[in-house]
Amino acid sequence: MIHAVILAGGSGTRLWPLSRRQLPKQFLRLEGDRSLLEATLDRLQPLVDPANALVVTGCEHARGEAYQALRPFRTLLEPVGRNTAPAIALAAAWLSRGGADPVMLVLPADHVIRDRPAFHAALRQAIDAAEQGALVTFGIRPTHPETGYGYVRAVTDGRADAPVERFTEKPDAATAEAFLADGHYWWNSGMFVWRASTILDEIQRHLPDLYEVLERIRAEWHREPERDDPQPAVEALFHEMPSISIDYGVLERSDNVRLVPCDIGWSDVGSWDAVHELAQQDARGNAAQGNVLAIDCDNTLIHAGKRLVAAAGVRDLCVVETADAVLVVPRGETQRVRDLVGELNRRDAAESRLHLTVQRPWGSYTVLEESPAYKMKRITVTPGASLSLQRHQHRSEHWIVVSGTATVTRGEEVFTVTRNESTYIPIGERHRLENRGRIPLQIIEVQVGEYLEEDDIERFDDVYQRHQAN
User: Fold this and answer.
1) Is 434 in contact with 381 (CB distance < 8 Å)?
2) pLDDT per position as a tens digit, 188-226
3) Which of 127, 200, 441, 445 meets the CB 3.0–4.6 Å disulfide criterion with 404?
4) pLDDT tens-digit series, residues 92-109
5) Domain named MannoseP isomerase/GMP-like beta-helix: which ranges (predicted)?
6) Rg of the chain over all Cα atoms, to the nearest angstrom
7) Which residues pair with 38 in a beta bridge?
8) Is the per-residue pLDDT at 64 higher than 90?
């Protein structure tokens, strides 16, 4: 039996402002009409039955902006981020319950692979090695001295799989040049194949503190096997696990790692430079998406999300526009986007966390205008969905229905509000908004008060099991 474990818990900071902390790049459509997560699962077929795919992601994603994106998939939710080793250990333990020992394909959710037949051939080679008890990683032949990737040294000599000699974290430019000249270094793709029992044995050997917490989680699962729900035990104990990568915690310490070299049209889409390389370009090396006017430009990426972006006479730039932010950075320096996001986080800026249009399990809202005293939103509620029963301590709300029919709970009252009608929610009043109709409900909400942030929500009942302001 072959299972896929898709790691979808990253924050995607290097593709800001398109990627935000609460809706990172793995849930976005960077190419075509499929998100990177959807494309990752699609390309595994027919080797992996979709029913045997498990997505490991954060509670914040699954109960917030990525709720709809994750609905089609089986999920295992991390209450806090603890890097890849705890996520992989948790998935291996869950897939091993009842004595099973599947081969696990462990793949990031946010990569692009263009050559599916070559990818499948590499997977088959890796599966053969994993069935013999090896830990298998995939090596990508370097095309340039990249400092944003880790490296793996293995002398393949034409073999389908070769022993790994060493792992190296992201090098400086001179070291990357030396690796390229050496000829036996490969980019570390972050994709792995192994039996669940093999990786659990290695984790027990090399990461005993992590394994001890894992055993306590498994004991809770065994206590109620009929429940078939991993989350209560995970949410109680997962935070005690150390934060460590599978590369550093296990693979660099193991003598049982094999490398499958592959040429599969791979990219980790780890920067706007990578997006430019993947995009369709004109004769002068320009890649444009959205409403773009570019005159006399060269080697430039322009992404327009909301407005017209016009450029004349610019070269070697990445320009990315969204409704609330514009990024301008030279080509070749797009890794510095992480520095910008770090500064935004230091300032606790909303632009690092959310877009102006924020996805929610029940629909979405868009901030139309705000000031210190009021905020105006457009709220869309999908048919059959409802917001939580809640109240606010610092603001009142005025709702005007512009399409559909709203079912409103206000205190002990339950009533409907139709198009071109309105209602008022006083400060401190329990209330709920529902769409019991067949078409999307749209309202304009005007908040008035001394504090208008999303954490001024006290929930009393919520079908989406959210405990924070989502």
Assistant:
1) yes
2) 999 999 999 999 999 999 999 999 999 999 999 998 877
3) 441
4) 999 999 899 999 999 999
5) 290-344
6) 24
7) none
8) no
Q: What is the DSSP letter of 114?
A: -
The torsion defined by the Cα of 104, 165, 243 and 138, in degrees rounded to 10, comes to -40
The token duo for 104 is 């696990």
- Phi, psi dihedral angles at 231 (to 5 degrees): -65, -40
Q: Give residue for tokens 């792995």.
A: 192
Residue 102, C-beta contacts closer than 8 angstroms, at least 6 positions apart:
1, 2, 3, 52, 95, 96, 195, 196
Residue closest to 258 by CA, chosen among 126, 107, 103, 104: 126
Strands 166-168 and 151-153, how do they pair? antiparallel
Residue 328 DSSP one-character state: E
- pLDDT computed for residue 277 by the predictor: 93
* Cβ-contact 379, 363 below 8 angstroms: yes
The Cβ-side half-sphere exposure at 318, using a 13 Å CA radius, reads: 24
Runs of H (alpha helix) within 71-207: 84-95, 116-131, 173-182, 196-206
User: Within a 10 A sphere around the Cβ of 369, how many other Cβ atoms?
Assistant: 9
Tokens of 269: 């889409």
- Gap between the Cα atoms of 277 and 288, Å rounded: 12
CA dist 375 → 305, 341, 408 (Å): 23, 25, 20
> pLDDT tens, 313-364?
999 999 999 999 999 999 999 989 999 999 999 999 999 999 999 999 999 9
In CATH, the number for domain 2-267 is 3.90.550.10
Question: Which residue intervals of the chain bear CATH 3.90.550.10?
Answer: 2-267
Q: Contact 399/423 with Cβ under 8 angstroms?
A: yes
Q: Per-residue pLDDT for 410 more than 90?
A: yes
Q: Which two tokens stand for residue 68?
A: 């709809």
Centroid of chain to Cα 364: 18
Residues of the chain with CATH 2.60.120.10: 357-461
Q: Fill in the DSSP letter of residue 251.
A: I
Question: Among 57-66, 111-120, 293-302, 394-403, whose mean pLDDT is lowest?
Answer: 57-66
pLDDT of residue 379: 98
Q: Are the C-beta atoms of 256 and 162 separated by less than 8 Å?
A: no
Its CATH class, for the domain covering 357-461, is mainly beta
Cis peptide before 46 (omega within 30 of 0): yes
Q: What is the pTM of this model?
A: 0.90
